[in-house]
Design a protein that fits this description.
- The structure is a single chain.
- By secondary structure, the chain is of the alpha+beta class.
- The chain folds into 2 domains: about 90 residues, Jelly Rolls; about 130 residues, Jelly Rolls.
- The protein contains 7 helices and 14 strands.
- The strands form 3 sheets. Strands 9, 10, 11, 12, 13 and 14 form a 6-stranded antiparallel beta sheet that branches.
- A hairpin with a 2-residue loop joins strand 4 and strand 5.
- Belongs to the cAMP-dependent kinase regulatory chain family.
- One of its GO terms (cellular component) is plasma membrane.
- It comes from Ursus americanus.
- GO terms for molecular function: cAMP binding; cAMP-dependent protein kinase inhibitor activity; protein kinase A catalytic subunit binding; ubiquitin protein ligase binding.
Length: about 260
């Protein structure tokens, strides 16, 4: 880590400045110190905003990892500051470490049914951007009503998914009822990212749990081919909620 920090340089940006442009060669990897940025992807000649960064996050790593052109344009929407790492240093330090991570997680990621629609190269990119998080027994992983910033895959342990619904006899003392459990290879946290709504449920660790986590920007960039599978899962969620609460809790329709 000290090698990375020593090699980084500061870059100040102005509002409206293009930090990177889709199609260009990758020269640097960036970590956001402060500022807001929009992510634009051009398809059939039309640019579309697919996400944003708000005073945190990083970008530019994919072009450096795979020697491919930039996959998106990043535009500053406020004055800000970035910390950059040049291509040579990035590949010497980061790519070497990612090779170790690939060896650890490649077979696990390939075994996940919902990622079967991805090409091999796309699954490798998923391995490269995921992080690992460990939670203790009873620890909250996500909270109902919070804004979504990550998607989770259970590597080990078990996760309890609960939803609050007042006025029902089935609810527990804290006002929440258990609606599902996730174990190794299963995922959660995708619903809020697919529907662009706050978290519809909470998740807590049962015993010690290890999860692979992907932030919302990587989710939007890399899991597009899996989106239809995740949308189909919404119907299953709705059936579970109707059985438990007599309503689908409006998990899809936008709030007023």
């Amino acid at each position: 880590m000290s090698q990375v920090l020593d090699a980084m340089f500061e870059k100040l940006v102005k509002e409206g400045e293009h930090v990177i442009d889709q199609g260009d060669d990758g020269d640097n990897f960036y970590v956001i110190d402060r500022g807001t940025f929009d992510i634009y992807v051009k398809c059939d000649g039309v640019g579309r905003c697919v996400g944003n960064y708000d005073n945190r996050g990083s970008f530019g790593e994919l072009a450096l990892m795979y020697n491919t052109p930039r996959a998106a344009t990043i535009t500053a929407t406020s004055p800000g500051a970035l910390w950059g790492l040049d291509r040579v240093t990035f590949r010497r330090i980061i790519v070497k470490n990612n090779a170790k991570k690939r060896k650890m997680y490649e077979s696990f990621i390939e075994s996940l049914p919902f990622l079967k629609s991805l090409e091999v190269s796309e699954r490798l990119k998923v391995v490269d951007v995921i992080g690992t998080k460990v939670y203790n027994d009873g620890e909250q992983i996500i909270a109902q009503g919070d804004l979504a910033d990550s998607f989770f895959i259970v590597e080990s342990g078990e996760v309890k998914i609960t939803m609050k619904r007042k006025g029902k006899s089935e609810v527990e003392e804290n006002g929440a009822v258990e609606i599902a459990r996730c174990s190794r290879g299963q995922y959660f946290g995708e619903l809020a990212l697919v529907t662009n709504k706050p978290r519809a449920a909470s998740a807590h660790a049962i015993g010690t749990v290890k999860c692979l986590a992907m932030d919302v920007q990587a989710f939007e960039r890399l899991l597009g081919p899996c989106m239809e599978i995740m949308k189909r899962n919404i119907a299953t969620y709705e059936e579970q909620l109707v059985a438990l609460f007599g309503t689908n809790m409006d998990i899809v329709e936008p709030t007023a």
